[in-house]
Amino acid sequence: MSPTLLIKDGFKFFFYANEHLPRHIHVVKGDDYATIDLSSMTVRENFMKPSDLKNALVIVEANRQLFEGKWDEFFKR
């Protein structure tokens, strides 16, 4: 199970049901993906084109509180 939090501009933002800290979000677009730490906005893994990663980071930043809230709610933190 991987709860989808947002689909926007061809990106899918989600986390897995068996995640670990720190809170982070997975992003896919087509066959490309990245993992972004929510607290520091650090890119932990990146297999995206630079322009796509830049756009994904803008979307994550704009929805950061939503993503953190959904993480906390799902994992009861």
| Number of alpha- plus pi-helical segments | 2
The proportion of residues forming helix, as a percent range, comes to: 25-40%
* Low-confidence regions: none
Shape: globular
Strand order of the largest sheet: 1-2-3-4-5
Supply the key terms.
single chain, five-stranded antiparallel sheet, 2 helices
Write the layout of secondary structure elements.
Elements: E1 4-8, E2 11-14, E3 24-29, E4 32-37, E5 43-46, H1 50-62, H2 64-75
Description:
The protein is α+β, with helices and mostly antiparallel strands. The chain has one domain. Helix content is 32%, strand content 32%. It has two helices and five strands; from the N terminus they run βββββαα. A five-stranded antiparallel sheet has the order 1-2-3-4-5, with helices on one face. The longest helix has 13 residues. The radius of gyration is 11 Å and the shape is globular. The protein starts with a strand and ends with a helix.
